[in-house]
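Feature request, filed as a ticket because there's no other form

It would be nice if the structure record came with a short human-readable summary line next to the tokens. Right now we just get the raw output. Example of a typical job, pasted below so the devs can see what we mean:
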Amino acid sequence: MDLASIYRAEYGRCVATLTRLLGDINLAEEAVQDAFTTALQKWQTAPPNPGAWIVTTARNRAVDRLRRETTREARHAEALLLHQPDEPQEVGPVKDDQLRLIFTCCHPALAPDARTALTLRLLGGLDVPEIARAYLTQEATVAQRIVRAKKKIRDAGIPYRVPAEHELPDRLPPVLTVLYLMFNEGYSATTGPLIRTDLCAEAIRLARELAALMPDEPEVLGLLALLLLTEARRPARLGPTGDLVPLADQDRSLWDRALIAEGHDLVRRCLRRNRPGPYQIQAAISAVHTDGAATDWRQVLALYDQLLALAPTPVVALNRAVAVAEVHGPAVALAALEDIDLPGYHRLPATRAELLARLGHHAAARAAYDEAAALATNETERAHLQRRRTELTDPRRTS
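Raw output as currently delivered:
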């Protein structure tokens, strides 16, 4: 495994562990970054446990930095760090370092967007462009949110500690958002390989930890079900040559039946609770897609109608339009796209292109494919859009 892959896989764990040891998010992140810089200079091959090497090196770097400081607070922090046991234990409901850091970053004193942006940076190791794509916003805006969140944590003295059990439900919505966005980045990466299995696996692992911590929260179960059912389709998502395979064209025999069975069981548990929420409804949609040999699009559309009522976002409206096309035809779906505003989001013109092509408007479809390809940041997705464009009929024979 190369250093870039190790960075993606280990960064969040190392920052979480160092934050527990140091009690300072900024110092932890800087120490981990310094340790990876040292690894770049020293490693010929990666050690057997690269994460442990990074944590040890980062801790030593933090001690060195504190020794250079002259303040009483720095000397006190150094003394605490030097006398930390190798595996310090903390009493409280959250045992996992990363899950604990997620709850810490999702403190109610921080603005909602700042919470999730900071957590995606620290836990997922996502870069600013990747987080900006997840938010469908500008990179400069995301960078400012992260800086403000760190400053707020420092200035307000927000402690790195385990939330009390009665505090957990109030912290839950942004935690769910973080895990959802982390998985999405893993499933459709901003750049590089389309799928980052390490990020998908980590989001699922943390979702399982969260479900064990809060087994009576239906939205937690819904999110876990959604991630499992989406992950189940991953083996069929790319063709033998690495080309993107749309859902309708996937070989369903490649889907992971064990994950599908687990996901369906979780969806049934959610239904019995009768407290529907956005993640549960998305999980139910995924359950319909993975139930049987073909998708029941009328059921999918009915579920999207419920989801749009609970979460009236442009992305939900766009996904609903896809179901509308299958039930009522591409012309009705195309009309539904007119009121959707998603600047910079390549899937909007890509969906428009598909609908126009189905209607036989190939010239307009090609223009929409060009727009989508220009907006796509992942090469695999861009290549798929360009390939779909070339598959259209010769323009001299169409409108």
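Something like this underneath would help us a lot:
The CA atoms of residues 212 and 220 lie 9 Å apart.
The first helix runs from residue 3 to 22.
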